[in-house]
Amino acid sequence: MSAFEYFQENWTPVINDFLEKLLKDEVDDHKISQIMAYSVMAGGKRLRPLLFLSTLNTLGKKIDESEIRIACGIELIHTYSLIHDDLPAMDNDDYRRGKLTSHKKWGEAEAILAGDALLPMGIQWIAEGSQSAELVSIITRAVGPNGMVGGQYLDIDSTNNSSVSNDDKFINRMEWLKTGCLIEASVEMAAVYAKASDIEKVKLVDFSRVFGRAYQIYDDLVDIVETSEEAGKATHKDEEEGKNNTLTLLGIDKSRQKLKELINEAKDDLKDLNSEVLLGFLDLYKKVL
Amino acid sequence: MSAFEYFQENWTPVINDFLEKLLKDEVDDHKISQIMAYSVMAGGKRLRPLLFLSTLNTLGKKIDESEIRIACGIELIHTYSLIHDDLPAMDNDDYRRGKLTSHKKWGEAEAILAGDALLPMGIQWIAEGSQSAELVSIITRAVGPNGMVGGQYLDIDSTNNSSVSNDDKFINRMEWLKTGCLIEASVEMAAVYAKASDIEKVKLVDFSRVFGRAYQIYDDLVDIVETSEEAGKATHKDEEEGKNNTLTLLGIDKSRQKLKELINEAKDDLKDLNSEVLLGFLDLYKKVL
After folding, report:
1. Which domains does chain B possess?
2. Which residues of B touch A87 (CB under 8 A)?
């Protein structure tokens, strides 16, 4: 078992237990708690919280309850983004991770509100776990109009807009904002929280940017390579709906090539760090190569 | 001119200019910036930012750019809540402050995303203006599942549910969460930020709770007393749609009586403070008495 697999097997249940317990204990209304937990506990990989914790590990920072609270705050925010992305007015998806999406299960108003509840609670956990206004600044910038929500807006705005379907720069920017910003923030928050040196921080943030860019290409490839059953959501859907991404731009072979290049770049960023665990994240991409 | 009127006339344009300038300068994408600013600049009274600043004034804290940034962060969050409340899946309102609502003007996806952009940016401004994780904790709790969003959920869940239309306790709780929590947070953040003594803080927070409770009754009375043209939105709508509030429970006369009692209670809370400006907020309610 690799260091990464060991780390993942160790901390994933801790994250899951914490999320389940706190959504029960810290949300007063039972029904809202249930609606929030339905999506949070739907079987995500906990990639972003694990990335946060792995970066702490790389920097020799001990992981305790405060650190888990921050990590889980990131997952709440990620879940909010999925719930809103799936809404009828947005991507209009019926299934996510093999289960009915929030609005299909609970209703549209309930899904909007579940997302609206998860976002501030995620930021709250980050603020209270870290006691740091700087971490709040990092996460709120990453998910605001110049980050994740900005990317989602460009996506909505450009769907079926053929004038941008071949615009490499536009697509890179959109994909970066949609997915990369939150991944970068997960690593950057860990670097700031663990008081990394300037050099460590630059390397880690560089790694997170390359990893995040690779993740989007990976995600698009999963959409094509896997069957709908394996992926737990509707696949082959992006192309049908006129969505523009690196895959529709480069095709499968060149996307795989690009992904390999990015993996090597990411490995390079981690070279001089105590990065055994972080390196393991790159193995995730093997299944589409 | 009262001290309150002077304060309001002095700071309202400062708040408005700051909001307009920063939404232009700090949002990269012109179109998203425009959609956000459309709702933020739609002519609100800036009640919550003014409450924050007036509480600072009461405590003798100087108002400078950092303080304005926090105040404006509160207004972004308030505006997000209005945009999402108006959505078709929620209250389905076409007009707000006499203008088309965000989703009517820009589309539903755009309105959801404008709200999703304003919330984290509002928290960001509060974090960066205050450099305080405690203020972030106060604001995120106030707007999360145990605060504003929780109230909105109870509202949606109880509309046309006759089993709660006579439940005084349920209605008080729902109205408190929907409107009161953010008002209380505006005052509590100022008390923490200006390092109020424990006694000052208790009095100010008490005041904010009574003021917030009164505000909801006032808002419901405006819905009946004013014509649609004066209020800038559809009035007499709550009753038609089976919405439960203090007004449908008590009727107009007893609601007015209740409001008068709350005003006296609020005045009592402010008695020993340097509260000339804060007291003036209570004059707002005169127009429905």
Report:
1. 3-288 (1.10.600.10)
2. 109, 112
